[in-house]
Amino acid sequence: MSLVSNILLRISVALILLYTLTTHNTAFGSACCSASSQVPTLITSDSVMQLGLRTARSSVIGSSGPNTTSRFYNHERSDITYRLELLGAYALNDRWQLNASIPLTKRVRRVDTAEAEHWGLSTVALGGSYELVPEIEYSSWKPRVFLFASIGLPLSNSDEARLDLGTHIHGSTSLVKTAGFFLLKQFNTVDWNLLLAQAHDAFYTSVASVGFGWHGPEGLRLGVNIGPTYQFGSGLLGQNRLVIDTSFNLGLSFFDDYSLNINYLDQTLFGPTKNSELSRVVNLLFLRRFDL
Amino acid sequence: MSNRTTLVRLGPLLCVLGLASACSKSPILNHQEEEVRRAGGSVSGASQAPQNAINENNCPMSFNMPSTVSENAPARLCLQLRFSDPPREGNNTVRLDFSHDVDVREFNIDLWMPTMGHGSEPVILSQLASKSILIQDVWLIMPGLWQIRMRWRGQLVNYEFSL
């Protein structure tokens, strides 16, 4: 990559980061804690590019109030979101990557006798990442550290969010800016990871997650991640929202360049949770890597 | 790797997760089930009286109808408001039943705490039937006196209740 494009890329990511961390605009907010991953598609292998297709089914099964009490919905109410997402990442060099995701979403909501559904593009995200601490020499403890930032395009409007049983699926009404760190370390047959991310659209959302994995034979990986998602001031009085995401992961790599990942995320296992809907999500990710 | 070794490795992790779940205020271990409606009811409250037809004789709240040339036109639009469950801190659902057909797009509804000088989040309005509107995401964020402020054709009607 030429020197000029390298400098332009660095400036772009720096500007995104700066914009993410310093701006504040008020707009109609998206639903809290949508259980979608805040981690962009990162290339952690030696591949130069990877493409993925993810399908997900998310079901809201209840909600938590301000005093952390939870109520699960009865059979008269359902709120299910289906998602088909195209993911891509491209390594510009050893440290810099670009990534993008294009999700197509359908939401079906039913309350009593009323039912509504809506489908379309959800938040389209574009981002970049920089491997702050690469693993150039072997270390038994030092993790790889990725710094990432992304912007999500605002495809929603506030009118949409208030009608049709709230089946809005276009994400936020304002630009979603996300930045964070992702630490990853594999040692022998185990690995751990740590995510710290901050997103901002109408509200600030902080996400933290710690995960552990075990690598078995034939490209098998079993993993678990747990961490809070905290949304600041999304209520008019500055009421904050909190959910604890717990996910279980089964990964399978095959033919060297392919992997299949099944993930189950549950927001009802750990507390406390407050001021938020509670979801369960199953997603399936198929990934194809391309080498140099 | 044998199954036994795998179990030995996963065992402590599962124990930690189980313990953390039990010690934290886990929603799955500490939750209430939403009440199921009574037979013949609707999103109406299980704790409230069965629904009666809303008309001039049963008119808990009302808007004035705009003046029309017809003398037989109703003088007011009556409505009744009911919570799906007894109001609670957190997310609630409310149903509005009217004496005449209404269009949800003509309504603007918000939540307000008059003694506190603040409200809550925007609600979601849906047309449940020609004479019924559903209000979702009625987030009551604290105990106290609340108003559901309903605006229709330039008029305001408040439903006031204590939580």
Describe the protein.
The complex is a heterodimer of chains A (292) and B (163). With 292 residues, chain A is mainly β. Helices cover 8% and strands 55% of the residues of chain A. Chain A has helices at residues 3-22, 158-161, and strands spanning 49-64, 70-72, 77-91, 96-111, 114-121, 125-133, 144-152, 176-187, 190-200, 204-215, 220-232, 241-254, 258-266, 276-290. In chain A, strands 1-3-4-6-7-8-9-10-11-12-13-14 form a twelve-stranded antiparallel barrel. The longest helix of chain A is centred in the N-terminal third of the chain and has 20 residues, at 3-22. Chain B has one helix spanning 3-23; strands at 31-33, 61-64, 76-83, 90-98, 107-113, 118-119, 124-129, 132-140, 145-152, 155-162. Chain B is built from one helix and ten strands, in the order αββββββββββ. The model of chain B is unreliable at 38-50 (pLDDT under 50). In chain B, the strands form two sheets. A five-stranded antiparallel beta sheet of chain B has the order 2-3-4-8-7, with no helix packed on it. The radius of gyration of chain B is 23 Å and the shape is elongated. The longest helix of chain B is centred in the first third of the chain and has 21 residues, at 3-23. With 163 residues, chain B is mainly β. The chains are: A mainly beta (292), B mainly beta (163).
* Structural class category of chain B: mainly beta
Spatial strand arrangement across the major sheet of chain A:
1-3-4-6-7-8-9-10-11-12-13-14
Calculate Rg of chain A over CA atoms: 19 Å
Helix and strand element order of chain B: HEEEEEEEEEE
Shape of chain B: elongated
Estimated share of beta-strand residues of chain A: over 45%
Counted beta strands of chain B: 10
Order of helices and strands of chain A: HEEEEEEEHEEEEEEE
How many angstroms does the end-to-end distance of chain B come to? 58 Å
Q: Give me the secondary-structure category of chain A.
A: mainly beta
Strand order of the largest sheet of chain B: 2-3-4-8-7
Average pLDDT figure of chain A: 82
